[in-house]
Amino acid sequence: MKMSNRIGYMDALRGFAILTVVYQHLIVMGLSNTAYHSPVSKLIVLFFMPLFFFISGYFSLKTESINTLRGVWSVCVKKVKTLLVPTIIMFSFCIFYFHLDFKHYIYEPTKSGYWFTWALFCIVLMFTVANYAVTVLFPKLKMGGHLIFAMLLHWWAQHLDMYNSLNGLFSVNLVLENYLYFVLGYIFHKNMDTGFLKKLFFGKLATSVMLLLSLIPYIYQVQWYIKNVCCLMLVLVIYNVFMHYKEFFDKPYFVANLLKKCGLYSLEIYFLHYFLLFRQDFLVTWLTGFSRDYCFRGHSCQFLIEVILIGVSTVIIAISCIFIRKMFSAFPIVSKLCFGKY
Hints:
By secondary structure, the chain is mainly alpha-helical. It has 18 helices and no strands. It has two domains: 1-42 and 247-342, no CATH class; 62-184, no CATH class. Helices cover 73% and strands 0% of the residues. Helix 6 packs across helix 9 (172-191), helix 7 packs antiparallel against helix 9 and helix 11 (204-214) runs antiparallel to helix 13 (224-244). The protein starts with 7 loop residues before the first helix and ends with a helix.
């Protein structure tokens, strides 16, 4: 697949998103139960998964042209092949490789980390069916219908019983909660050229205001609905930054190419990076020492030191996943089953 046939800044945005996922998992799995508390992780958790679903919704625009049951069925079959089958296979391999309890993790909402592609599979199917229904029954209420339905599901997700077995088996709360970000990605892509929308969300002043407001949950404990609005604003700010520098991502710079390459192989990195995460004892010692030192404690340099140390590890893991993925290309059937594509 040629990079020239793709949207450079959106590939880079997807690459940035998957790197934040790997970064967060390095913190959670490599620095957990230590005296060090990551200031970067506290920021990443505000946006990294909403950003992924927003991007997925952004690329769902062509789904709106599906107005037949045959088209809906075609999407379902395609997503079973490209999302559901690879998720089942990689989840099962992860359980086997790490000697985990299959029954426990099948009823655990996060599915040992593999909940994202399962949730995305459910969300795409829900959106396709909802889009068909709205197009056929209420064509004039299309955008409003999508948004109202998504907001109701999002509200419902906040009031579900987290320990319900059905919720654990199907990750219902994660599906319903992130459906809204998917729909918003679709809506923003469809209306991004609208003058009013540009001024309201994409202007320089609007971006600056949204950035300040989006950091409120980083500083203060707020209600879930305020936090989620702030998360959405932060997602839009990040999107605006990448869109503003889109010409940069069309040039052969190292950072631009790295982000685009990670974006191109984001699904493969997601599936494979769990096997490459490691216990970072030397980083734990180093970062804990910095956090306790008066010179570093509470200062921005602690943030910078962490980004450099964990960031390098993140990039190495991502590149390793891409290398492994390319090795799989020699085995087309295995590649198709594990990653949904050759």
